[in-house]
Amino acid sequence: MKQRCLNPRCRAYHNYGARGITVCQDWYEFEPFCKWALSSGYEKGLDLDRIDNDGNYEPANCRWVDRKTNTNNRRMTIYLTIDGETKPRAIWEEMAGIPPGVTLSWLKFHGKEYAEERIRDAIHNGYTQKDFGYSHREPVVHLETGLTFRSMKEAAAYFGISPCRISLSITQKGSTGKGTFRKLGVEG
Predict the structure, then answer these.
(1) Which residues pair with 144 in a beta bridge?
(2) How many CB atoms are closer than 10 A to CB 186?
(3) pLDDT tens, 61-89?
(4) Helices 112-125 and 102-110, interaxial angle, to 10°?
């Protein structure tokens, strides 16, 4: 705490002392800090956490928390609001059964509203990963030979081409160079 706030050579100084965060004068000495720590819930394995990340290290702004709580109380923590309740993104992922980090990609590529809606849906209905390869598992028939395959992936492996090439030939009604395909049960 003192190194972060008082020593410009400390690796973390730019996140603390350089931002104007200080240590209260009483805590410059170990005994007053130790007395406060023991009377404020210190236990082995807990981290000293500032409640307000822009506030100083002082009794009114510090507490002892587990690592997870400390990690979720950072300046860079992203907060999302679901059904009127605001929590850190990682907490929502855990509550909804969403793999760690998935919501970061939702935020990056689709925005905050999309991420909040997906989390809300996962909480109410359970999380299921979107299956972007679903169409590649639909059964297809090779028109020239009459061979049927359980999936485009299986047909692609048989003919040595990519499933996407088969998919494109079906949607654009063209040949793959290895013949023409259509979805099983679909006339055309």
Answers:
(1) none
(2) 11
(3) 999 999 988 988 888 889 999 999 999 99
(4) 140
